[in-house]
Amino acid sequence: MDTVSFTQMRDGTRADYDLLAANERRFIEQLPDRLLAALRELDHGLDGYPVSRLQHSLQAATRAERDGADIDWVVAALVHDVGDALAPENHSQMAAAVLRPYVREEVAWVVLMHGVFQQHYYGHHTGHDPDARDAHRDHPWFDSCERFCERWDQAAFDPAYPTESLEHFEPMLREVFSRRAFAGEVITSS
Predict the structure, then answer these.
(1) The domain that contains 173 carries what CATH number?
(2) Looking at the 3D structure of the chain, how many domains does it have?
(3) Is residue 163 part of a domain?
(4) Measuring CA to CA, how many Å separate 187 from each of 108, 117, 179?
């Protein structure tokens, strides 16, 4: 395996950084594979719900798709909890950071905020503020986040709901995460 010649970044050469850029391009191209693996891992995680976190994610994506949501929303619903394993206290931020380069700003913001908005359903039972989302009431995407949580996220814990498989969503995930990162025509579209 080729490696760079430096032990400190400031000593790198053009050839070193060309090598790293080529390696990074290949690594980025493999992002969909790593996301699929991370989603599969959600099948083995937080206990206590009637469905696994993977099944919850698949059910949220299925609900989004059946509601006629576009590909950005469906993939966002699929990966919205991908941060649960590594960032249980701020999983929303982690999932939004993963999505942000590849989806429009509205979708990334909704995933970023969904954890706060979800408190509306349980905060009064757990000592969290069920009205914390109200701090964002004047935000232009408040209604989108409220709808995401109401229709797709909080409703996606039903073991009897006919849910699509991960293989069903794989082409959509691959399409979204194969986009050019931060492409203006994607992230600013409405």
Answers:
(1) 1.10.3210.10
(2) 1
(3) yes
(4) 9, 22, 11
Q: Cα separation of 172 and 32, whole Å?
A: 10
Listed as own residue / partner, the contacts of 86-91 with beta carbons closer than 8 Å and 24 or more positions apart are 88/46, 90/115, 91/115
**pLDDT tens column, 51-87:** 999 999 999 999 999 999 999 999 999 999 999 999 9
Please tell me the distance from the alpha carbon of residue 101 to that of residue 85, in angstroms, as a whole number. Answer: 21
Range of the domain at 136: 9-187
Comparing CA positions, the residue from 76, 86, 73 lying closest to residue 42 is 86
In sequence order, which residues have a C-beta less than 8 Å from that of residue 2 and are 6 or more positions away?
19
Residue 16 contacts residue 6 (beta carbons within 8 Å): yes
Query: 151: which DSSP letter?
Result: I
Judge whether 76 and 36 are in contact, CB under 8 Å: no
Token look-up 């050469």 returns 13
Burial (CB < 10 A; 0-12, 13-18, 19+), residue 167, is exposed
Residue 159 tokens read as: 């073991």
Find the radius of gyration of the CA atoms of the chain: 19
pLDDT in tens, 7-52: 999 999 999 999 999 999 999 999 999 999 999 999 998 889 999 9
* 12 Rama class: left (phi>0) / alpha (psi -120 to 50) / beta: beta
The C-alpha atoms of residue 130 and residue 111 are separated, in whole angstroms, by 18
